[in-house]
Write a structure and sequence with these properties.
Length: 167
């Protein structure tokens, strides 16, 4: 049985986790069985979201580092978040030139804006997951409530989160 189908049969919750975030996800949601957990797709979870919607998943949780969240939120998301959260022109330019999402996150940390920027990245990622779910369902509104948790890649601690418990 696939992880998506098993999740649908266990409370219709699916928890996706990024590289190195599987244990953090399980610690955050200890009441869910292992069948509810699956690694996030390299394509930014588009395929998993569509499969989950097809099987009746109503709660989607993504626990991941900045690279996975940026992959879902889309190109330019880290730069846009930095700009929109008043990170300043210099930091925004540095983030735009960063060779990786991890490097951009390090710039946020050094500037002391990783908290607000991380929460905003979570908000945008949750919105994109719900948009994809609505698209997969062929509906004007998402049948899935998305929660997104940004974790620090080094120690797995939560840096930011955003989401809904139900639609």
């Amino acid at each position: 049985m696939s992880a998506t189908r098993a999740a649908a049969e266990h409370g219709r919750t699916l928890v996706l986790y990024g590289a190195g975030a599987g244990e953090a996800a399980r610690r955050m949601l200890p009441g869910l069985p292992d069948a509810c957990f699956a690694p996030a797709d390299p394509d930014g979870s588009a395929g998993t979201v569509a499969r989950g919607v097809a099987r009746g998943v109503v709660q989607l949780v993504l626990v991941a580092g900045p690279a996975e969240l940026a992959a879902v939120a889309g190109a330019g998301a880290l730069e846009a978040v930095t700009r929109d959260m008043d990170g300043g022109a210099a930091l925004t330019a540095e983030v735009a030139r960063a060779p990786s999402a991890a490097h951009a996150y390090g710039l946020w940390q050094a500037a002391g804006v990783h908290g607000p920027c991380g929460r905003e990245l979570c908000r945008r990622t949750a919105g994109e997951l719900e948009r994809r779910a609505a698209e997969a369902a062929g509906a004007p509104e998402s049948p899935v409530a998305a929660q997104v948790v940004l974790v620090d890649a080094e120690d797995g601690r939560m840096v930011g989160m955003f989401g809904r418990m139900a639609r």
